[in-house]
Amino acid sequence: MPVLPVTDRQEFLSRPRAQLAKGPIAILFVEDGVAVTETVAHHVARGFRHILIMSELQISLPPDLAARVTQLRHDSRRPDAHVDGVNAVIAAVPAGTWLYYCFNAEFLFHPFGESRSVGEMLAFHTEERRGAMLTYVIDLYAGDLGRFPDAVDLDNPMFDRTGYYALGRKGPDGHPRDRQLDFHGGLRWRYEELLPPDRRRIDRIALFRAEAGLRITADHRFNLEEYNTYSCPWHHNLTATIASFRVAKALATNPGSRDQVGDMVWRNSHPFGWNSQQLMDLGLMEPGQWF
């Protein structure tokens, strides 16, 4: 497989590019070599027009996938690396462009994703006057850490089918923010003592439209409060899910946690089916008014 050429991020984003002219565009932060090809292939299949890989690592992809990808030099392994990367792309693309961001070994699922593209979904979401979409990050993990010491099993992953909850989100004045909640569950809830408090939420505004002055923050929220809402005031809107091995991988491999994790499987573990219907059936994403 050919090695992707690495382009200077600032130079690439400073000029008009055909790859940036129209969305939806995916931004993929590659932190290590786990499941990179599978992550790219999944998001190409979802219908993203182009994928920007942010990483300094050497990455090889099959030619058919490489043609849909541009790799930009970016230190994706430092803390909060998504902030500079996402904000740089926001400033570079035309206003109104739909963007999405995730990390390697994360996989986007949206309602009816087996028959409808992400572009079709976002076109409907735009018609509902929404500029962003809430996604729930659902932890995937291997059922046998003896066979998969990094907790990544792409063939037979497990996830928590219950144990999710939401708490009201308060503003600086101590009052609840309108249509905003903090969502919790999965490995971040079961192993919360091993995670800092600002890394325990599972909500992420991963799909959003670029807008002048828009900025993402370290906690996966935006400086425009309407972007952080889960729905409009008059009815439920679409939501999506990111199935992610990221937390499991970190818990199983980091020296500070790997000896305390043990077996990630518990009574509410369930095989993950790699389809959108399972997630809708369990209430882990919302089709809204899109039928």
Write the layout of secondary structure elements.
Layout: E1 6-8, H1 9-13, E2 25-29, H2 36-46, E3 50-54, H3 63-66, E4 69-73, H4 81-92, E5 98-103, E6 106-109, H5 118-127, E7 132-141, E8 158-160, E9 165-170, E10 176-184, H6 186-190, E11 203-209, E12 240-244, H7 246-253, H8 258-261, E13 269-271, H9 276-281
Parallel strand pairs: 1-4, 2-3, 2-5, 3-4, 7-12
Antiparallel strand pairs: 5-11, 6-12, 7-8, 7-11, 8-13, 9-10
Helix fraction bin: 10-25%
- Count of distinct strands: 13
Counting structural domains, the number is 2
Would you identify the regions where 5 or more consecutive residues have pLDDT less than 50? none
Number of helices: 9
Residue fraction in strands: 15-25%
- End-to-end Cα distance: 40 Å
